[in-house]
Every structure is written in C-alpha cells, then in structure tokens.
Specification:
single chain, 139 residues, globular
Length: 139
C-alpha cells in the first residue's frame, strides 16, 4: 500500500460519519466469504496451503473488521466531502485523465472518448474523488 493510500485509509477510518452496524456486518461477511473462497481455491490448486481457513480468518478478525469499516465508510466520506468542498473539474483535467487512461491502456484518446463520452464527462466523478482524496491526504 502506498503512502497516500495509507493516509487516505487513516483519514477515512478517523472521519466522523455514522456507519450502520448492519452495513458493516454485511461487508464483513462478504470480505470473509471472498477470502475463504480464495483460500480454498488456492489450497485446491496447490498454490498455497490453507487447511483451516476459518481459523486463519478468525486470526485476522481485527484487520477484516477494519477493512469492512473502511469499505462502508469510504463512499460516505466521499459523499460528505463532496458536499462540503467546492471541488470543480475542468475540461482540461478531464482531457488529461482521458490521455492518461489511453497511455495506461495502450490505446488512443478517441477509443477512451468512445467509452467515456466525447466530452469525457463520465470521468468527472473519478477525477473529483481523486482530488478530494489528494486534499484529505494533504491534511
């Protein structure tokens, strides 16, 4: 995990926003089920040995609970900060993001525009959320 990802994670976990216990428990269940599935699959394919996946998951309980809280809180934090901060996204920023995607995907800007719209408007939320994360991590 990069330094900025760690800072964002810490920011979200410390942010004062109410998380429904039921939502956190559902997310914890999904995380545990996914991890158990991966452990069983790895064990069956011989990639890793996990003879007692439930015990392993129980040993990781605190980390799994923290992960579930983060997954539930992050969209709430982003929504709250979006309301509080006046974060604008310019056409130039959308174009820069579209060009970056094209480079990463070894594609062209025109192909990216076909997917995200000629004005790249479907990238606006991603760019806004990245700017909010950068703002929060600079605190």
């Amino acid at each position: 995990m990069s330094y900025s990802e760690e800072r964002w994670r810490a920011y979200v976990l410390a942010y004062d926003v109410e998380v429904a216990q039921e939502d956190m428990e559902e997310e914890l269940y999904r995380i545990r089920a996914d991890m158990k599935h991966r452990m069983v699959y790895a064990h069956m394919t011989g990639a890793e040995t996990h003879p007692f996946p439930d015990m392993e998951l129980e040993e990781q309980k605190d980390a799994l609970v923290e992960a579930a809280i983060f997954e539930v809180k992050e969209p709430l934090v982003l929504k709250d900060l979006t309301k509080k901060l006046d974060v604008t996204v310019t056409p130039e920023e959308l174009l820069a993001e579209g060009e970056a995607i094209a480079r990463r995907q070894n594609s062209t800007l025109e192909e990216v525009k076909r997917f995200f719209g000629q004005d790249l408007a479907f990238l606006e939320r991603d760019v806004r959320e990245r700017k909010i994360r950068e703002w929060a991590c600079s605190r």
